[in-house]
Each structure stands twice: as structure tokens, then as C-alpha cells.
């Protein structure tokens, strides 16, 4: 069996802040509060690595997010734009 190094990259989709991009704490995509909560949004498989995009969203916004279709649409659009720009 071949043992290949398969890298998994976690990419946070959040508001820009001075926090390190790879840290556990990021700023909520909706309100900007610092949070460690996220939702897995999309996985993209490349040859040698997998990219997992995660939407950073705080506890309070997450509650609204689950009920509010307009907010879902807004955040998904933002996230898709982010991914398009990222690649
Ligand atoms: Zn929030």
C-alpha cells in the first residue's frame, strides 16, 4: 500500500481581524465577535490535499442563522465569494 502524505487545510471564512489566520479564535462572519465556533461549509479535494472551508460564526449568530433564511443566503454568498477568491 502506498503511503502518501495527504494534507488537510482548514480555512476559516471570517471577518478580517488582527488574529492569526491559523488560530482557534476567529471573528464571527456576521457580527465580528471573537469565537471558536464554526460550521464546516465546503470540502475541496485536490491531488495532494484537502481544503476544508469553515464558516466562523458565534453562538448567538448561529441561533439566528438556523432560522433566518435571508441571513443564510447572505452568509453562503459571502462564503462562496471567499472561496472563489481564495483559489
Ligand atoms: Zn456573531
Short synopsis of the structure:
The protein is of the alpha+beta class and 87 residues long. It is 31% helix and 31% strand.
Please render the helix and strand layout as text.
Blueprint: E1 7-13, E2 26-27, E3 34-35, E4 38-45, E5 49-56, H1 59-67, H2 69-86
Parallel strand pairs: 1-5
Antiparallel strand pairs: 2-3, 4-5
The chain binds zinc ion.
Residues 28, 30-31, 33, 57-58, 60-61 line the site of zinc ion.
Descriptive report:
The chain is an alpha+beta fold. It has one domain. 31% of the residues lie in helices and 31% in strands. A hairpin with a 6-residue loop joins strand 2 and strand 3 (34-35). The longest helix is centred in the C-terminal third of the chain and has 18 residues, at 69-86. The mean pLDDT is 92.
Task: Give the distance, in angstroms, between the N- and C-terminal Cα atoms.
Answer: 31 Å
Overall structural class, as computed from helix and strand content, comes to: alpha+beta
Sheet of most strands: 3 strands, mixed
Q: Kindly report the average pLDDT value.
A: 92
Query: How many domains would you count in the coordinates?
Result: 1
Q: Secondary-structure element sequence? A: EEEEEHH
Using the alpha-carbon principal axes, give the shape: globular
Given as residue ranges, the uncertain stretches (5+ residues, pLDDT < 50) are none
Number of contiguous helices: 2
**Helicity range:** 25-40%
* Beta-strand content bin: 25-35%
The count of strands amounts to 5
Rg calc: 14 Å
Spatial strand order of the main sheet: 1-5-4
List the quaternary state of the chains.
single chain
Ligands in the model, by name, code or SMILES, are: zinc ion
